[in-house]
């Protein structure tokens, strides 16, 4: 209900007037208007070419430097060309085109700064020059618990940070469905507990611990985490007490560094908290409201990491008293729905918004891709928080997620029947033939296989695929889909398979081994997501030599370089195809280009495959960027109300 209310609020939003197009640069439509066709289209322009460094204004709390207020309003922001620059930068130019100001609404990093981190493909793992005690607070962490990208990030990034010399702890709930699962069986009871005051009483939590891969994995044990279903709900829907369950997690996470000796020593007060999504959103508020006034955690810092802004932890205003916060901090969480979104005439629309409080009180804000960090500052992509995020633009960054390159490696993947590499691609052809045989499709090495892996829901653009399938099937292709979600879409997949027995296969559900085999065996991966904060499947695909065709949004825009056959003296450049706007026609146009290139231009296709496979998708690259943010967050003072 919360996500629906927030998304509905976008219909009433008016786009800002500073989104006019510059005619001096080639434009690509970002099409952020995924909720209403009446909202304006957004277009991104590409500045900064070559190795040009971008000035970093991150530590200037005043925002723009140089132009006066009128000129600020007269300028338009332009996304920097996505090269090796790890953060989205902006070039500001006045409407008359006579003045250009280098600045950033989001932090940027120069090439020289990134080089100091000594990150490179094939190089020995770098160690951080400065190390920190890092506490990652999350609702899920793979392999212990996972429903999506959040679990992947919080299961992989901590290990990489630990490899680089940091002391890292991950705090998440100890989910049980009656008996300890094999994944958490090695976590032992520390005999350490904490009492938490919230929801009108005192709750006692205990801590379980496992030391694995250089990381302290701490699990908060409480009866509210011991039930069937996933971390957030069951077959009926979301749990009614999720606010309580994750409030408990946040309070417990703040206590762990103080009370739990790991290796004989606690993490202590000088910690860096990484609070992931709304489930951990109370951590920055608790540090500011509950601990620092008493001299505790004065030297600690907090970063909120936004994986999906659509979920904000919005509940009725009356629940504020349950959160264990002083009454004077209500303003940090205050949220008011617009009049049209209220249920009846007496509804005041008052609510509390946990993610909002984290954005207000965290020392820095991160998102999981460069493009998404821009999108959430727009009225179309900000879910009602865009003005607040704009006001904190000087501490807002985007870092594209990495992937587990050991698990996702076509040269050693245990789930695929044949291995291959950029030097020898013959194994991919065999993987394709095996996949066709496994799924009962005609074994035709010459026919391109299009794949889709993901949830069957509106965000993933499944309705676009449904509408376009009859036209896709007119081509000599095979189409394989893997996913679950909307029951109507699951039924549609089954019906479509019956209609196109020799061309279409729909696997309802999710299966890790088959997802690997589809990634390796397909030629094209289709991702028409309406919005995608980062996206991982396109990264897996490129690593496996499978060409992504994606909607130009969020992390998809950042990671997939649109194919240009005329660049590099005719050798071509790019790793896939991006399309915009999000319409059936533009998606089909991109697919036709991909299919045509596969059939008629084998050398270009092989170039696409190899360019994708040779890119660095590792967490090492992302971790180096995180460390720069860690340095910055300790330069500035902690949040003070």
TrEMBL record:
Keywords: Amyloplast, Chloroplast, Glycosyltransferase, Plastid, Starch biosynthesis, Transferase, Transit peptide. Its EC number is 2.4.1.-. InterPro entries: Glyco_trans_1, GS/SS, Starch_synth_cat_dom. Its main location: plastid. It comes from the Eukaryota. Coiled coil: none annotated. One of its GO terms (cellular component) is amyloplast. It is found in: Plastid, Chloroplast; Plastid, Amyloplast. One of its GO terms (biological process) is amylopectin biosynthetic process. Residues 442-564 form the Glycosyl transferase family domain. Pathway: Glycan biosynthesis; starch biosynthesis. Transmembrane segments: none annotated. It is an enzyme of class 2 (transferase). Residues 133-390 form the Starch synthase catalytic domain. Belongs to the glycosyltransferase 1 family. Bacterial/plant glycogen synthase subfamily. NCBIfam families: glgA. This is Starch synthase, chloroplastic/amyloplastic.
